[in-house]
């Protein structure tokens, strides 16, 4: 009887180790969720939008859209960093809303997203964001003091790192539904696994916003079931920034994608700078 119990326990241990090993090997497929296929031309989504090509430091070519301001210009440009799913076409309503308020907007896709080559990771997304920023500053002549960074969920970590590692490169940030760090999110999804020990990509948002030291506004949904509002508030506390809470809003609700709270937060920060 004892031998049988030992055998079963051994098999369960092997199965658990195989399962953990599989998750470790394919963890990025669980973190990054790019859609299939390329993105249509910019003008098919937004009449005045322009297709743009970005070149990363490691030689990849990425697709992007530049959406010029309409009406009375605020002379501020917004660089938008997406979350972990979808592509720039899904952010067209956001770009349209910001453009209508007098802001230039750059939407771009990370490597592996939107028909771009390459495979995403924390380090590689940092290169992609830097390429987008370089395009605005070097090719379009946007002064860093007139550049705002808007990060959506995972994108909050991307823009926070961009600001932290390049002091003076941006005037401020709006972070929509940011998390404390990626392991804190993974532990909620897989509470039975040693997520913090297994994850290769960390995205330490609170640490990054504290180092960035730029004016920051956090927008959160009070009914967010993906990123707890408490985590987003912790990011705001670390940044010494303001919080805009949207009652009843869940993580992927349109009101958090391009609603008045998000647009108003960006416009408000643009007017401050």
Can I get a quick summary?
The protein is built from 11 helices and 8 strands.
Write the layout of secondary structure elements.
Layout: H1 2-25, H2 27-31, E1 50-55, E2 61-67, E3 77-81, H3 92-100, E4 104-108, H4 122-139, E5 147-152, H5 154-165, E6 172-176, H6 182-189, H7 195-198, H8 205-212, E7 216-221, H9 229-239, E8 242-246, H10 254-258, H11 260-272
Parallel strand pairs: 3-4, 3-5, 5-6, 6-7, 7-8
Antiparallel strand pairs: 1-2, 2-4
Keywords: Hydrolase, Membrane, Transmembrane, Transmembrane helix
Transmembrane segments: 7-26
Organism: Actinomycetospora aeridis
Give a verbal description of the structure.
The chain contains eleven helices and eight strands. It has 273 residues and is of the alpha/beta class. Strands 1-2-4-3-5-6-7-8 form an eight-stranded mixed β-sheet, sandwiched between helices. Keywords: Hydrolase, Membrane, Transmembrane, Transmembrane helix. Pfam families: Hydrolase_4. Residues 77-184 form the Serine aminopeptidase S33 domain. It comes from Actinomycetospora aeridis.
